[in-house]
Amino acid sequence: MRRFPRRPTDAGDPAHDACAADRLLTRRLDEALARPAAQQPCWPDPGRVGAVVEQLQQAEPIVAPEETARLADRLASVARGEAFLLQGGDCAETFADNTESHLRANLRVLSQMSAVLTQATGLPVVNIARMAGQYAKPRSNAVDASGLPVYRGDIVNSAEPTPAARTPDPHRMLRAHAHAAEAMDVVRRVGAGGVYVSHEMLLLDYERAGLWADACGPATRLTSGLAHFLWIGERTRQLDGAHIAFAELMSNPIGLKIGPGVTPELAVEYVERLDPDATPGRLTLVSRMGHGRVREVLPPIVEKVNASGHQVVWQCDPMHGNTRVSGNGFKTRHFDQVVDELAGFFEVHRALGTHPGGIHVEVTGEDVTECVGGASGITEHELPTRYRTACDPRLNAEQSVELALAVATMLAGRRADVQEGP
Ligand code: PEP
Ligand code: MN
Description:
Elements (H helix, E strand, L loop, with lengths): L1 E2 L12 H19 L11 H12 L7 H15 L4 E6 L10 H22 L3 E6 L32 H4 L4 H21 L3 E6 L3 H5 L2 E4 L6 E4 L4 E4 L9 H7 L5 E5 L5 H11 L8 E5 L6 H14 L5 E4 L7 E2 L5 E2 L2 H18 L5 E5 L34 H24 L2
Bound molecules: phosphoenolpyruvate (PEP) and manganese (II) ion (MN).
């Protein structure tokens, strides 16, 4: 792996082929980044962005390419139905919460969920944390209720409601990188090589600064040194947009969120663009349909993608289609609706005979009160007591394990079916 683009001091490098490959990749990357990019901040001083990007390009990578390659292999086994994928963590990481105790608590809850799912599925579980870089947030509105520029995550601006704090500051990308490196140290110590890291591939000035040339495959591609797994969000998946074109150049495994507006035909277009070589597990389709829609919208998508011959990972995000505002004004999710979307997802795959490959959840090991319901019966009235998220409501430690147990119950029925035969 080598830096991309090459630094001027590398110009005398005798590897001329690599230089030609770099020129081609540079052109394709420039073309990708020239496309319309949704959800980018309006930096007040573009000159400073260039300087930050140059600095980031000198930074050490956060993840190693061998680790990313290992994850790609493991996701291939998920796509083949031989493993299960658990992905989870904060909706938005913050600089202030990038503490050893917070990271450890989130890793602990993921490992507890993973243990339950290993037992339930009888399959190895692949663990991916939303961690070490999940600092950028897509937002529905550019301004908040008081008319200030909206908070876009700690990598862009501050949540503090003042005009100065909300002004996008590119220097924050350097802080984000340093925090991500620190978080990755904790992941390596606590996760002992069994936990991969991921974030939404949203802020393209940051993502483009973390690219390395990967010459392992038949053609040179780009690999992110910023995370093992990157996903494209529901708001940035425009077919002619920059995010999809950027992801096409990368060798990392890629996720794509698909909401209820995605038709089966569109799903196949995505699959053909993002998995052109039909590599099992290269693409994870993350359905987030809402509990009321999943049973109706997902089946034709799964059927059509399956018929295309691509082996994707089918993953359910039961959080983002079930967000609502409580009577007392908190963005929340009801535990029962989250469980119901998962139930729908497992029902759909069971009916079609396809592998429900995994789940993608917003969870924390902290004892927060952000989602209502669950065994402890958190009510709307209790939400303000420990509502701490920087963006979307997370399941707390107890609700997270309860969710894993609910999945175990759903899968128990499925395994009994498989063992007994028709
Ligand atoms: C998220 O995962 O935090 C998110 C914003 O999801 P989506 O793009 O599916 O809305
Ligand atoms: Mn979220």
